Amino acid sequence: MNVAHSPKTAERQIAPWRIAIDRVYQWVALLGLVLALLQVAFAALGFWGAEEKPGDQAWGMAAFEPHTINGMVLYAVAAVLFILGLLSRANWKVWVVPLVLFVLLYGVQGMLVGLGFGVSKWFGFLHALNGTVIIAGFAWIYLNRVWRPLRS
């Protein structure tokens, strides 16, 4: 029996469309990582922009607008990664980690920023700490696909 055409070899072959999805996943993960890193700069921009007119709440909100919009883009990126991870079926982590990131971005970050401004600055601290976890999550996702890509 020819080894190249044995049933076990055929089972190990990965469909080309799954490999293509894994490559797209890798690029979207890189986009997420870059945008997550930019989030830190946008937060600083908002902070110093708000300091230009300390008593003006509308000015302060406008100063944080790039940070807010980029955050919304990030949870869309996490949702896309979740879907691509389900489709690629590379491993269970490629869809679980984006799902966790989506929850952290969509649910937790907004709650923490509201509590940070309304209740205590310590919630703002947790907002920044959670952002660091999110950056690490996007970095892990990207590096995981670079180091362990699907291959035929």
How is this structure best summarized?
This protein is mostly helical. About 80% of the residues lie in helices and about 0% in strands.
**Portion in strands:** under 5%
Helix segment tally: 6
Oligomer: single chain
Low-pLDDT runs of 5+ residues are none
Q: Main beta sheet: strand number and arrangement?
A: none
Mean pLDDT: 87
Question: Based on helices, strands and strand pairing, what is the structural class?
Answer: mainly alpha
Indicate the radius of gyration in whole angstroms.
Answer: 20 Å
Shape: elongated
Total strand count, please?
A: 0
Order of helices and strands: HHHHHH
Q: Which range best describes the helical content: under 10%, 10-25%, 25-40%, 40-55%, 55-70% or over 70%?
A: over 70%
* C-alpha termini separation: 22 Å
State the main characteristics.
single chain, elongated, mainly alpha, 6 helices, 152 residues
Description of the structure:
The chain is an all-alpha fold and 152 residues long. Helices cover 82% and strands 0% of the residues. It is built from six helices and no strands. The protein starts with 6 loop residues before the first helix and ends in a 5-residue tail after the last helix.
Fold blueprint:
Layout (H helix, E strand, L loop, with lengths): L6 H6 L3 H35 L6 H7 L1 H24 L4 H26 L2 H27 L5
Helix pairs in contact: 2-3, 2-4, 2-6, 4-5, 5-6
